[in-house]
């Protein structure tokens, strides 16, 4: 890996990743083939989008084989809608991929984490993947059509030996999240703070750190009292 992060920017803004960590092509983070059946996004501070910083070309790194993917929902989702999640290699077609299509659960406008389990998918080391969540507001019968919104981002798993700034031993909470953030491990930084918020175990400090991390990533418009929740993928 070619260049270190600028530690002076810690808690202020994110430094670009080393050039060799970006995938060959980076995705548009949001869009859709049609929006006729979806609620209006006009009252939301953002459209459906991944929590993937623009400075990282809408993606990020992780240490986890089964990471948690993060996005922002601009409106409430109901079981009348359907969701499709796909995870595909950026360039190596010989690698495994994942696609799940299912009836949506009830989800509130706000932040959504999608934890992957070992029975669903494992990221190999040093391989870039694209993940896409498609929201079909017309329901499960409309998933062959073009009336959907999407959020898309890239993710690459790296080894612990690839970090630039040592991660403190036994670090937890805000300290661990900051160490991940300073090493470009964006997905892990989000998960350390987002998980206790989703499960109701957050402290005042972790709530403030979550808002600060979002601001670091360029998501300051989303830091108002938006709930954090998990979307658990159904088994096949």
Report on the structure:
There is one protein chain. The protein is of the alpha+beta class. The chain has one domain: Immunoglobulin-like, CATH 2.60.40. 16% of the residues lie in helices and 24% in strands. Strands 1, 3, 5, 6, 8 and 9 form a six-stranded mixed beta sheet that branches. The chain has a four-stranded mixed beta sheet with strand order 2-4-7-10, with helices on one face. Strand 5 and strand 6 form a beta hairpin. It is globular.
Descriptive tags:
24% strand, six-stranded mixed beta sheet, 3 helices, 236 residues, Immunoglobulin-like, four-stranded mixed beta sheet
What's the short version?
With 236 residues, the chain is α+β, with helices and mostly antiparallel strands. The chain has helices spanning 173-182, 186-199, 204-216, and strands at 30-32, 49-50, 59-62, 68-73, 82-89, 98-103, 110-115, 128-136, 149-157, 228-230. The protein starts with 29 loop residues before the first strand and ends in a 6-residue tail after the last strand.
């Amino acid at each position: 890996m070619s260049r270190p992060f600028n530690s002076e920017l810690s808690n202020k803004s994110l430094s670009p990743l080393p050039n060799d960590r970006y995938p060959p092509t980076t995705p548009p983070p949001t869009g859709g083939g049609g929006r006729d059946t979806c609620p209006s996004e006009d009252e939301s501070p953002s459209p459906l989008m991944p929590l993937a910083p623009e400075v990282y070309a809408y993606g990020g790194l992780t240490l986890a084989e089964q990471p948690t993917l993060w996005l922002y929902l601009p409106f409430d989702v109901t079981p009348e809608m359907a969701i499709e999640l796909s995870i595909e290699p950026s360039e190596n077609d010989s690698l495994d991929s994942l696609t799940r299509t299912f009836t949506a659960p009830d989800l509130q406008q706000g932040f959504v984490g999608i934890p992957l389990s070992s029975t669903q998918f494992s990221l190999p080391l040093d391989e870039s993947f694209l993940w896409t969540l498609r929201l079909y507001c017309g329901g499960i019968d409309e998933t062959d059509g073009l009336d959907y919104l999407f959020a898309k981002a890239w993710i690459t798993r790296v080894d612990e030996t690839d970090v630039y700034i040592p991660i403190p031993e036994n670090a937890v909470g805000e300290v661990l999240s900051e160490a991940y953030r300073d090493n470009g491990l964006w997905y892990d930084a989000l998960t350390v703070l987002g998980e206790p918020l989703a499960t109701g175990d957050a402290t005042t400090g972790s709530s403030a750190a979550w808002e600060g991390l979002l601001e670091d990533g360029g998501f300051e418009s989303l830091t108002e009292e938006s709930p954090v929740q998990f979307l658990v993928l159904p088994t096949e």
